[in-house]
Structure formats: C-alpha cells, structure tokens
Input
Amino acid sequence: MKTNKDYSENLKQSGLKITKQRVAILDILDKSKQPIAAEEVYENLKSNNISINLSTVYRTLELLTSKNLVLKVSIDGNSKSLFETNNMMHKHYLICTECKKILDIYYCPLENYEKELEQETHFKISGHRLDIYGLCPQCQKKINGGKNNI
Amino acid sequence: MKTNKDYSENLKQSGLKITKQRVAILDILDKSKQPIAAEEVYENLKSNNISINLSTVYRTLELLTSKNLVLKVSIDGNSKSLFETNNMMHKHYLICTECKKILDIYYCPLENYEKELEQETHFKISGHRLDIYGLCPQCQKKINGGKNNI
DNA sequence: ATGCAAATGCAAATTATTTGCATTTATTAT
DNA sequence: ATAATAAATGCAAATAATTTGCATTTGCAT
Output
C-alpha cells in the first residue's frame, strides 16, 4: 500500500509548472524499481489511461533531468536512454548481462582513487561512471542448470 | 615515420577476408590516438581517396568488434558509438568534459572490489566499465584563466 | 583461370529522439 | 472567480545514427 510521493513540491521548487503529465511521469519513474526508457514510460502511462504524447515524455524527461529531479542513464548495449528518479545518492549499477536487470550499488570504491588520479594526471576530476556486469544468481542457475559446469 | 602495422594477419586469424576496406579501416583506427565514430572513419577514408560506403564502415566496425579486433566505446553525452583498435589491455577512460579528449588509464582500481561484490551479491561478475570525467589541465587554464578561482 | 561464398555499394528502412507550430493549460494579477 | 499570458502539450514532420535488402563485385580455395 505504497502511498505516492507528492511531486508537486519538487516541480514547484524547480520553477516548473505542475501538470498532470509531469506528475504522472515522476510517479511512473518512482514506481519502477529500475531505470526505464522513454517509450516504456509512455506505454505505462497509456495503460493507466493517462493521455500523453511521446514527444512530451521525451521533453519532460529531458527537462526533469536538467533540473536534477531525474537521472538519465545509458547502459552499454542498450540503444535507448533510461531514466529514473534522482534520489541524490551517488551510486553505481550492477547489470545482469542475461536478463538485463539493473541493481543499484551505493558503495563507491573510487573515492580515494579519484584523488590519486588528480595528482597523476592534473585533471580536475568531477565525477565518474561505473557499471559492473555479470550474471545474476537466477540467470546463473538457468544457464548452468544442466550441470555443465567446468 | 610510423610504419603501418600489417592487419592482414589479424583478419586472416579471425577467419575474415582481407579487403582493402577492412585494412584501411583498421589503419585509420590505429592511427587515431582516440576512439572515433563511424562517420569520422568514413570521412577520414574519403579524404585519403579510399572509396568506401558508410554502411560498409558500420558493418565492418561491427564485425571487427565481434571478433575483438576493435572495441566499441560509448561515452556519456555522445550519441554516436566510438571505435578503437583493441590492444587487449584492460583499461578505463579519463574524459575531459570540456574538450572531449579521451585518455586511456591502464591501472584498474577495481580488481579486489569485484571479488567482494561477487560475495555480497552472488552475481558472477564478468566485467565492468569505468569512465572518469573531469577537466584536463589545458581546459582548466582556459576556464580559470581570468583568475576567478575560489 | 573458375566458381562461389563472402564483402561491398547503394538506396531505402528503421530506431531513437528532436523540433516547429498551433492549441491548450497552469499560474499570476485583477 | 476571471482574464491575460507565458509555458506546456499534441501532432506531424524532421533529424541523426544505424541497419537492412538486394544486386554487383571481389577474395580466395580449387
């Protein structure tokens, strides 16, 4: 019985008008356990009988990303950009190469490394992106189910 | 006076026919200090008076990537895929957010971390992707040249 | 040299995303 | 509440990157 967050406040604070489309999009993203593509947002809204245009979805996602209410994520091997609500936590992704499920990892192994790298390279490091790939436990079972391990 | 590597052998070993287009593409990639887009490969070939079709470039890059002779790289904020010769070394990218230059980093700070993560998540980790963003020394100067530092 | 599968060129298709413009809607001042 | 207005939306068409179908050409084994 998860109560919806109220996104009106977030929109207002970012100086954006509160429209049913924007609230609905933030709602869909918040309900999704994973980053999803613009088209998925759109289909999702349509099946909830919320009338919206795909270009509005794109425009809104781009806008919300620019206001940091939403994160735009691009995963290797996926030609579409994915979107998720921004909970303002630095994180990384653990991606199953088989079922494409994406898990969030909130521990960051790179904080000290960034400082070292700044000294070595004289870059002013502003951020990084770390995606880790592997097989999730379920997919390992599916694939190695036939006892054909090494 | 850099002598071209002979890519014919690489192609042959991968069971591919040796064509002037393929050799030329590998050559362009090898000459480039950075990953480049399919279209850049194409333009580069044309200015060298090597006749080729853009779709052949795409097909070839995809093929060479599948044979691991070439690496396909996608960088955040760049809508095009980039390609570079695969020197079979594990590496990461340090990307200047201003001039978009890409530096290779051959040290990997994640080897132990992957093992820890396997134990925690029960994923079978197969790889990762790490891109680090920042301002290169030159762009720092350009931007902070007016003494407007903190 | 010949034959044939594989590679290429060309045009057209596809996919993801963006844009221009007319219409509608949310907010602000009345 | 109402009107004014700037911003948001819908719709269709445009664009960018990449892919595909098919006819022609080419590399290579015989």
